[in-house]
């Protein structure tokens, strides 16, 4: 089989709604009845795959060629990458180091050491014979499914291993992947068969609003400032600083959400937390957002939290957030 001509691939599949580049690529590979390593070596001989975060790196050689080979626009192909959130979720996409909002995979020898690939069992089940993975599931602000209304999961509950759908053929040198993308590649549990509880209505409403805000559209360009403020709120609620503990406990109590006790990990890194911890923190943030910025300002006053703790990194903070916090002093 030749892939050198300018023609379309003989057995291509189109990207589905909100599909990740890696998921879309793997479905194309399976459509050609080839192994992932062999396919990528033929099509992109100079690129290394699966030992990098393909969705975050957004290598132009990959998504541009895929656009041509399946007959879609380059813009639509680019939308399968996490970099396409530039101007929507963050001002600029960063391809190396820690990135705001993007859950790290912790890739080591083509395996994941972090739980950065979340999933909704109901969505995978609804996908039928062609399950796929969504961009939304790679985001730290995503704790629930805006479509199904249930909690996202970040690991197979039976083996507690991260989701690594690209490893379905590992250990089978002469065999193609025998399981759908929805199967855990460590213990072969079908993640589509799992059940997940429903989100509280208010939290679900915010998850749906955020999902809609991130729908790729030129009208959304520049709205990253909203998410900058949200990111700062989540950083405050997940901070390990002792000066913020009274503030954090008061927010948790008022929100009716279990208090998250920060420990280990990176300072202020919401992206480093497992989904169970992020559920609590995002739930607390939603309570603050429902009457923004008044609830936040009131908790600061009632707990006598110093603004120096809230604005400790003012030169990195969104201007709108700084202005609202400074009004606590003058209010």
From TrEMBL:
Q: Which residues form the TniQ domain?
A: 11-150
Superkingdom: Bacteria
Pfam families assigned to the protein according to its UniProt record, in alphabetical order: TniQ
What is the protein name for this chain? TniQ domain-containing protein
């Amino acid at each position: 089989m030749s892939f050198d001509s300018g023609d379309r691939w003989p057995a291509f599949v189109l990207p589905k709604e909100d599909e990740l580049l890696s998921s879309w690529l793997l479905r194309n590979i399976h459509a050609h009845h080839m192994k992932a390593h062999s396919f990528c070596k033929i099509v992109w001989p100079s690129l290394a795959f699966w030992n990098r975060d393909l969705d975050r790196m957004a290598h132009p050689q990959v998504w541009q060629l895929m656009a041509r080979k399946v007959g879609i626009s380059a813009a639509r192909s680019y939308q399968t990458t996490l970099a396409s959130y530039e101007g929507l979720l963050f001002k600029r996409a960063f391809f190396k180091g820690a990135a705001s909002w993007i859950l790290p995979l912790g890739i080591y020898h083509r395996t994941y050491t972090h739980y950065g690939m979340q999933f909704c069992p109901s969505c995978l089940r609804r996908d039928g014979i062609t399950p796929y993975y969504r961009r939304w599931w790679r985001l730290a602000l995503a704790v629930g499914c805006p479509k199904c209304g249930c909690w996202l999961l970040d690991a197979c509950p039976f083996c507690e291993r991260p989701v690594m759908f690209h490893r379905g053929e590992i250990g089978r040198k002469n065999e193609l992947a025998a399981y759908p993308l929805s199967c855990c590649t460590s213990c072969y549990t079908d993640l589509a068969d799992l059940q997940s509880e429903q989100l509280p209505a208010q939290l679900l409403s915010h998850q749906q609003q955020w999902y809609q805000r991130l729908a790729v559209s030129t009208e959304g360009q520049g709205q990253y400032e909203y998410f900058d403020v949200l990111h700062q709120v989540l950083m405050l609620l997940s901070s390990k600083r002792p000066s913020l503990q009274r503030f954090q406990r008061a927010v948790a109590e008022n929100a009716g959400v279990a208090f998250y006790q920060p420990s280990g990990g990176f300072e202020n890194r919401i992206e480093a937390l497992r989904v169970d911890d992020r559920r609590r923190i995002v739930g607390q943030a939603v309570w603050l957002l429902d009457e923004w910025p008044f609830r936040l300002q009131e908790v600061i006053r009632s707990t006598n939290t110093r603004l120096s703790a809230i604005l400790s990194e003012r030169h990195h903070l969104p201007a709108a957030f700084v202005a609202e916090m400074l009004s606590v002093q003058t209010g």
